[in-house]
Amino acid sequence: MTARALCALVLFACAPAREVRVGSKKFTESVLLGEMLTQSVRAAGLPALHRKELGGTRVLWNALVRGDIDLYPEYTGTIADEIVGRKKGDLGALVAASGVRMSRSLGFANTYAIGMRPQVARRLGAATISDLRTHPELRFGFSDEFMNRGDGWPGLRARYGLRQTDVRGLDHDLAYRGLAAGALDAIDLYSTDAEIRHYGLQVLADDQHFFPDYQAVVLYRADLETRAPAAVRALTALEGRLDEVTMRSLNARVKLDRVPESRVAAEFLGLSATTDEERASARLLRHGRDHLALVAVSLLAAILLAIPLGILAARRPRAGQVILALVGVVQTIPSLALLVFMIPLLGIGAPPAILALFLYSLLPIVRNTHAGLTEIPGPILESADALGLPRGARLRLVELPMASRTILAGIKTSAVINVGTATLGALVGAGGYGQPILTGIRLADVGLILEGAVPAALLALAVQWLFELAERALVPRGLRLPPAEAQGSNR
Amino acid sequence: MIELRGVSKRYGAAAALVPTDLALAEGRTTVLIGPSGCGKSTLLRIMIGLIPSDGGSVLFDGIPLARDNVLALRRRMGYVIQEGGLFPHLDARGNVTLMARYLHWEPARIEARVRELGELTRFPVDGLARYPVELSGGQRQRVGLMRALMLDPDVLLLDEPLGAIDPLVRAELQDDLRRIFRALGKTVVMVTHDLGEAGFFGDQIVLLREGCIVQRGTLSEMLEKPADPFVTRFVHAQRGPLAS
After folding, report:
1. DSSP character at residue A109
2. Is A414 helix (H, G, I), strand (E, B) or coil?
3. Radius of gyration for chain B, computed over Cα atoms and rounded to the nearest angstrom
4. Distance CA B208, CA B189 (A)
5. Burial annotation A30-69 (CB, 10 A radius, 16+ → b, else e)
6. Which stretches in chain B have pLDDT values below 70?
7. Cα A4 to Cα A305: distance, rounded to the nearest angstrom
């Protein structure tokens, strides 16, 4: 901690103008607003960095409070419900308690709404949410946040007395496609979503005024006012400049016309488009490097801890049960939850992702080390003891070599799972192949999804192949030979 | 060479071995025999400290076997089990030389000893590079014997060494084993359930039943002066239908 403080001090002394860090959530409007904020700050003459497509309200808020980011766009309804937790009072005053300031509205509200295909709505005669009460057989698909938030499905169901049981949580961008394909009857919408117009959806009226107001605002760290007052001036200049129609058409420019957010933001701000569009090959290389770093560091650390844990578990059966239970429990924690837990400790970026991947990698290695050691036949161990080998030498010269194949298989399993799970690192800004996948899902761009998914799959195959080579090098030949029963005749 | 004083062992409520005294003369071969579960293997394992005894003491060359000297004393004993108990991840040479390498013997000394043992046990030189799965049962047993003899121990303990070998190979191995015992003049303890084998090898035969020594002596003593009816029954059952 002291070393870290010292580093910060030195950095501060050398580079007093640390760049302003803007965050955004993983949906297009947030990325677009983040891009506008970043470019406004840059236009004010300050260096700025955009950490886009982070995993959700908690991830952004924790990163803001911790100082990993300096500002990000948010909605008042979300602040009231998710961040201050329905504490009564002025929102600005409530967030100020955490050292955060709230701007005035950017000029539009993006509230939740419920949408259906117009022909279905016509058939059912549904114009308001109350009209859904008489159709309990409808299939609903809601975004994961909407499913679990107090101001989402649980509250909506209670207020309107809805009795539908076929309700599933899924990604917001996938929900639109599910609705269009007829797999779902109703989904949650954001009122500025570009897709409403694209799919010609019917928005049901919130006749009981359940959904709170979701005014778009900017949350920023209070210390920004002293550290970079020009940045604060730049973001307050955006207040009141975006109405709902403008926002919806800007969203449509990105999602439907496939114009990069940076250019749409620049056009709106009247700036010349910054040319930070990376070439595909450079992007692929960067994602690959980030991904490999996540996998390599977390896997190596997991091997270094899991093998000794597996040995301990095999040596001491009672401690072993506790160890196996603990590493098993870690496996059941949902990955996003684990990542969110890590942020207050480690911030955003690679460290929380590496720690989460490390924890997920333990189980297969611990379990296989334990299994490999406990399945060695008793007479073999007795023979080693009878030679007069001490316990440590027995472990090193006999037990570990004999268990090597099983241990290596555990490491291989961990590595392959790790390569896949590391794509989730993008949710906390760790980069990797998850980044193009996230963006691709958001923009319904299959090419971009494949740009992440294909290299991730190839990497998994390469890792598998590498471990098969390693098996040939590390597992003693005597364990790889098939048993030769037929050789009994020649003494 | 080895002396057991009042050694006993219980597993839960069952006595595996009642308090037992037994002295093994230097340079002689003693055979422990009896029906399965009679405690003969337990007795052998106690001698090399693989199983701690509940009571009594084991003296090796006059030194009581204890936790702090058991590793050193085991290196003065060779131990061979059924099928040789070979380490599957090491080839024959690796198995034989494991302990010598652990003790940092000079490579030349290791090589000379391996050659010497190969000749003694009639194990072919080209077989040394083979792994246990590539060897026959008889070859595995020869490798197991070489491994036990590598450090030139004072005592050789064998637990049913020929138990899993087919009859023809077994006869040949028996001859070789007896020749080796005689050539080396070591103190040998062998566990078997085969009376013929016991008579073939044993200077002294110790017959056990339910954890307790029933009679000790030569085979002819057991035939002529059985200590109790069990001895007679055991001896006659073992001689089989062809011998009567």
Report:
1. B
2. helix
3. 18
4. 14
5. bbbbbbbbbbbbbbbebebbbbbbbbbbbbbbbbbbeebb
6. 239-244
7. 25
How many Cβ pairs within 8 Å bridge chains A and B? Answer: 85
Q: What percent of chain A has pLDDT over 70?
A: 93
The tokens for B108 are 């030349």
Altogether, the residues listed in chain B come to a count of: 244
- Residues of A in CB contact (< 8 Å) with B are 379-380, 382-390, 393, 397-398, 401-402, 404, 476-479, 481-484, 487-491
CA distance A24 to A36: 11
Quote the CA–CA distance of A124 and A114 in Å, as a whole number. 15
Contact A478 B50 (CB under 8 A): no
- Distance between CA atoms of residues B239 and A236, nearest Å: 107
Q: Mean pLDDT across chain A, nearest whole number?
A: 88
Q: What is the mean pLDDT of the segment spanning A259-271?
A: 91
Cα B221 to Cα B243: distance, rounded to the nearest angstrom = 18
pLDDT in tens, A300-346: 999 999 999 999 999 999 999 999 999 999 989 988 888 888 888 88
CA distance B161 to B191: 8
The reply to whether residue A484 touches residue B147, judged by beta carbons under 8 angstroms, is no
Distance from CA of A407 to the nearest CA of B (A): 15
What ranges in chain B are assigned the alpha helix state H? 40-47, 70-74, 92-102, 107-121, 137-149, 167-184, 195-201, 219-224, 229-243
- What is residue A212's predicted lDDT score, i.e. its pLDDT? 81
Judged by phi (left if over 0) then psi (alpha if -120 to 50, else beta), residue A345 lies in: alpha
User: Is the per-residue pLDDT at A490 higher than 70?
Assistant: no
Mutation target among A396, A397, A474, A491 for the B interface, most CBs of B within 10 A: A491
Chosen for mutation from B89, B96, B149, B166 (greatest number of chain A CBs closer than 10 Å) is B89
Element (H, E) at A102: strand A100-102
A399-416: b or e for each residue (b if 16 or more CB lie within 10 Å)?
bbbbbbbbbbbbbbbbbb
The 10s digit of each residue's pLDDT in A43-53 is 999 999 999 89
CA distance B169 to B165: 7
Record the tokens describing residue A474, joined without a space: 């590390």
| Rounded Cα gap, residues B84 and B145, in angstroms | 7
Q: pLDDT for A405-432, tens place per residue? A: 999 999 999 999 999 999 999 988 898 9
Give the span between the Cα atoms of A24 and A38, in whole angstroms.
10
Tell me the one-letter amino acid at A466: L
**Does residue B212 contact residue B18 with C-beta atoms inside 8 Å?**
yes
Percentage, residues of chain A above pLDDT 90: 59
pTM: 0.78
Q: Which of B92, B150, B165 is nearest to B116 (CA)?
A: B150
Residue B73 CA to residue B63 CA, distance in Å, equals 9
Q: Which two structure tokens, joined as six digits, stand for B134?
A: 């590539």
Sign of dihedral through CA atoms A96, A102, A104, A105?
negative
